[in-house]
Amino acid sequence: MLHNMEYHNILEMLRDTYENKPPGYAGKVELEHALKLNANDFVPYLEELSNKGYVKIMEGAAPTFIVKFTEKGYDAYISQGQ
Q: What are the DSSP E strand ranges found in 3-80?
């Protein structure tokens, strides 16, 4: 997986929701608050992770979405010792 602060913060948030908040989805507003970023700033990262099969993004009523790790993404993140 990719290594920079934006990815790390996003992936750590998704790890926390995956492990502690079944069914493991984080919402747009929850991500904005936790990351202290506007969605426009982190959505490109989520889209790249989605294209690689690491996360699943589900669109809600515009302009919202929810996102969670896929099993592949969670396993890859954990195997890196995060």
A: 26-27, 55-59, 65-69
Residue ranges for the chain with pLDDT beneath 70: 1-3, 82
SS3 category, 59:
strand
How does DSSP classify residue 53?
Answer: T
Q: Looking at residue 31, what is its pLDDT?
A: 94
Query: Looking at residue 44, which CATH number applies to its domain?
Result: 1.10.10.10
- Residue-number span of the structural domain to which 19 is assigned: 5-79
Neighbour-count burial for 58-78, b at 16+ CB within 10 Å, e otherwise = eeeeeeebbbbbbeebbebbe
> For residue 50, what are its two tokens?
């989605």
**pLDDT in the model for residue 2:** 44
pTM of the model: 0.86
